[in-house]
Design brief:
The protein has 2 helices and 15 strands. It is α+β, with helices and mostly antiparallel strands. A hairpin with a 5-residue loop joins β10 and β11.
């Protein structure tokens, strides 16, 4: 008996988009409320890519950002609205097997010289208490909270080919992409950039 391998299945348009977006999903008042909730929490330096020499210190060459965390109890309406948007976008463009939001929402503040170098979000979610039960991130969401006139630089870029793609700067603009996509936020050169980052989890890709 011999083994006959199938060719990869055709995607038929599913899962091939480098990113998708949703506009006018939030009012200015709702965006202001997200900022108020995020600012009411204790902002802390994001820890990513810690250097071997001092694992307690964040690697500022990779990332320099302040973040806080918004729980579902802080803003049930926000979780409900994002769940609605995610389900529609995923059904239309990716059709991934997803289960929900496992991690709290990340409110981020980029001041002058703040940045986040090239990285991917895929892998297990952050949960030190249940390290063996952490579901993998499958979709990443970035919601722009600041008016583009409030800052310069701070471009969210996605690496889909040789040239990075700049995601549109617009308050309330929501961008969603597979968490294995290479992306970055270029340094802010002036002003303050605020955003909300969310990860959607589900069973491992197979």
């Amino acid at each position: 008996m011999s083994l006959y391998n199938f060719s990869p299945s055709y995607a038929y348009g599913k899962g091939t988009d480098p990113y998708v977006f949703w506009t006018e999903g939030f009012t200015n008042e709702e965006l202001d409320d997200i900022i108020k909730i995020g600012e009411s929490k204790q902002l802390q330096t994001a820890k990513t890519g810690t250097p071997l020499a001092n694992p307690d210190e964040p690697d500022k060459s990779l990332r320099q950002t302040k973040v806080s965390w918004i729980k579902s109890a802080d803003a049930p309406w926000l979780y409900d609205k994002l769940a609605y948007i995610v389900n529609h976008l995923n059904s239309q463009y990716y059709d991934y097997d997803i289960t929900g939001f496992y991690e709290d929402f990340q409110y981020g503040v980029y001041t002058e010289d703040s940045h986040y170098g090239w990285h991917i979000d895929s892998g297990n979610s952050v949960d030190s208490d249940n390290i063996d039960k952490r579901p993998p991130r499958k979709l990443s969401i970035s919601l722009q909270l600041s008016d583009p006139e409030d800052y310069e630089g701070g471009e969210l870029q996605i690496k889909n080919c040789d040239n990075p793609v700049n995601i549109k700067k617009e308050r309330g603009f929501l961008c969603m992409f597979p968490s294995y996509t290479l992306h970055r936020v270029t340094p802010v050169t002036k002003g303050i950039r605020k955003s909300l980052v969310v990860w959607v989890t589900g069973p491992r890709f197979r």
